[in-house]
TrEMBL record:
Name listed for the protein in its UniProt record: MFS transporter
Chain ranges passing through the membrane: 12-35, 41-59, 80-97, 103-122, 143-164, 170-193, 214-231, 251-271, 283-301, 307-328, 340-361, 373-391
Keywords assigned: Cell membrane, Membrane, Transmembrane, Transmembrane helix, Transport
Domain Major facilitator superfamily (MFS) profile: 1-400
Domain of life the protein comes from: Bacteria
InterPro entries in the cross-refs: MFS, MFS_dom, MFS_trans_sf, MFS_Transporters
Organism of derivation: Streptomyces fuscus
Topology term for the membrane: Multi-pass membrane protein
Compartmental location: Cell membrane
Chief place of localization: membrane
Amino acid sequence: MTTAPSKLRLPGLLRLLIATQLAFNIGFFTVLPFLSAHLGQGIGMAGWLVGFVLGLRTFSQQGLFVVGGALADRYGVRPVVLAGCALRIAGFVWLGFAEEAPAVVGAVLLIGFAAALFSPAVESEVARQAVVHESEGGSRARVLALFTVAGQAGAFVGPLLGALLLHVDFRAVCLCGAGVFVLVLGAHAVLLPQHIPGRTRVHARGGIGPLLRNPRFLALCGAYGACLLAYNQLYLALPAEVERVTGSQEALAWLFALSSVLVVTAQLPVTRWADERLGTRRSMAVGLVVVAGGFGLVAVVRDAGLLPAAGFVVLLTLGQMLVAPAARAWVPDLAEEGRLGLYTGAMSSVSGLVVLVGSSASGALLSSGLPPAVPWLVLALVPVAAVGVLPRRTQKPSRERPASGHR
C-alpha cells in the first residue's frame, strides 16, 4: 500500500534530468533536419562533402560518448553537462555564421563533441537514479521509458520549430537552437546539485581494461548495437522500399511521424507491461524478435502497396520500445563500481561502431541487385542472431546502487 505513490512520483533530480532530455532534443532537432539542405543548397557544398560533414558529426558525437562518460565519472555530472551545453551553444552560433567548408566542419565537430559530453553524463545519472527509485519501490524501467518518451517528444517538436524559423533563414534556426541550450545551461547552473548524494568520483584511468574484460557487458553492447542497426534501416532500407512501391519518397514523412507518435503514446504502457510480465532479458529478446518480424513482413508480403512498409515501422518501433529501456536498465547491473558513466558511454560508442560497419554492409546489400525480398530477409537475421548474444542472467546486485538509495 505504501509503494504505489513512489511509483507515480519522481524525485526532483529525476524530473530535471528527464526534462533535460526533452530540451536537448528540441534544441538539437530544431537544426539537424535542415543541415543537409543548408550545406548543399545554401553553401553550395558537393554531395560527397555534405555526407562527409554529416558523418563527422556522428563520429564526434557517438564515437566519443565513452570519453564523456569517463569524464562524468571523474568530475561529476554538473561540470560536464554545463561544459557540454556551453560548447553546443558556441557550435550552433558558429554554424549559423559559417559560410566556408572549414568553418562548417569546425562548428559541426564542436556540436557533436558537446553531445558526447552532456548526453552520457545525463543518461548515466538517470540510470543511477532509476536504481535508487527501484530500491524505494518504483520501477527502474518506467523511469528509463519516461526518459525515452521525453527524447522522442523533443525530436518531434524540434523539427516543427525549425521549419517555422526556416522561413526567416538557417541562421535564425541555429540561433534558436543555441537559445534553447542557453536556457538549459541556466537551469542546470541553478538546479543541478554540485554533489549528488551517493555518487562517488573515480580516476579516469583504469576503467577501460575491466570493461573490455567484461564479456556480459560487451554482449549487451553487441545485442543493443544490432537493434540500433535495425532501427537505422528507417533511414536506409525503408526509403528504398517506399521508392520501389510508390516511385517517390513523399510517404516517408508520414511513416516517420507514425514512429514518433507510437513512441510518445505507447512507450509507457509497453514498458509497464514488459516490466511486469517479462523482465529485462526477455524484454530485449522479445523486442529483437518483433524487430525481425518487421523485416520478415516486408520480405514476405509483396505487392501490397505501403501496408508492409507501415507494418515494418510499427513492428520496428515496438521492438525498439521494448529493447531500449531494458538495455539501459541492465547497464547498472554490469558496470564496475563508480564507472556507470564510462559504461553508459561505452555502450553508445560500441553500438555506434556496430551501426557504422553494419550500415555499410546493409547499404551494399540493398544495392546489390538481388531480388528485393532477399536483403530484407538477411536483415531479419541480424536481430534474431542478437537474441543468442544476450547475456544469460540479469538478476545480480547492482554495484552502482548508492547507499543513499536505501535511506
